[in-house]
Amino acid sequence: MTTYDVHAHGAPTGLYDALRADEGRFGTEIVQTEKGPAFRFAGGLTTPHLRPQFDDVEARLAHMDEARVDVQLFSSWIDLTGYSLPTPQALHYSRLFNDLLAETVAATPDRFLGLCTVPLQAPHEAATELRRAVGELGMVGVEIATTVDGRELDDPDLEPFWAAASELRCPVLIHPYQSLKGRGVERYFTSNMVGNPAESTVAIAHMIFGGVMDRHPDLRPVMCHGGGYAPWQVGRWDRGYDNVPHLTRKVIQGRPSELLERVHFDTVLHDPRRVAALVELMGTERVVLGSDYPFPMGDLAPVDTVDAVEGLSDDQRSAILGGNVQRLLDEVRR
């Protein structure tokens, strides 16, 4: 059985050097912070410092061996999506990133699969790049943020991207970014501990109630951090659907709980009992292995976590560790 980690971040080999060599073309600048180098994107966004593990393939492979992960679905650190870039630079940047990621994956094809990045602030260009990345570069899906330079995921302008993702039936990893922006969550690390799951919850709620899931039944969303609060509160969404229809059913056709059953959820819940509850709520076939490598808030031994879940049959454990992802990969249209 092959174990797949759907939630693992980094930067492809050669990205930093390529951006240093031609910063103007890509709308990026490498700046120094107290903790180390960071990227500043045209449009005003500056990332936190770049972790050395992001582009260290040998360290990544060593960790995967230790964690008993056979294959990572390698995705961008979400701060590197560059949604603030103007369209021409955004397209150049995404194409460079994906070309280099394809080369990084191809160098160790038995251990890595690529989740591309796309310039979602330019949805038509994002759709074109997604088709290129999956159809020509061999990517297996795409990672996107929970908002796009301030726009929610049900924004009508994003329709070309959703149509392309549905057409390809490829996994769409939805990752929190700028969580609960504007709220006072800087204290106590709550921006991460509370904000990230909440941010994901808002994003999938917009996709459901905004009709994205209805319009595109072939979408394959994958939510990080166990789906945020969505699996635990979807009963409340159904209550709103039934009792406040003038607000909740403006564009939605399917029942929220039924639409949420088409989403996959990673295991980054940090407690085998919580993973067991997620399996009970959403079904074994919707739960997939994740680590959030290389961050300290990740579950960097995810196979151990699944092994510690009580009451799973061998078939259930096998599905979570790899079978469910293999099914998703088999369904991608190239």
Describe the SSE topology.
Layout: E1 4-10, H1 15-21, H2 23-26, E2 28-33, E3 36-41, H3 57-67, E4 71-76, H4 87-107, E5 112-116, H5 123-135, E6 141-145, H6 159-168, E7 171-175, H7 190-193, H8 195-209, H9 212-215, E8 220-223, H10 230-243, H11 245-248, H12 256-260, E9 264-266, H13 272-282, E10 287-288, H14 302-307, H15 314-330
Parallel strand pairs: 1-4, 4-5, 5-6, 6-7, 7-8, 8-9, 9-10
Antiparallel strand pairs: 2-3
Judging by the overall fold, what is the CATH architecture?
Alpha-Beta Barrel
Identify the CATH class. Answer: Alpha Beta
Percent in strands = 5-15%
Count of all domains: 1
> So what's the oligomer here?
single chain
Compute the number of strand runs: 10
What percent of residues adopt helix (DSSP H or I)?
A: 40-55%
Q: How would you name the CATH homologous superfamily?
A: Metal-dependent hydrolases
Main sheet?
A: 8 strands, parallel
Biggest sheet: strands side by side, in what order?
Answer: 1-4-5-6-7-8-9-10
SSE succession:
EHHEEHEHEHEHEHHHEHHHEHEHH
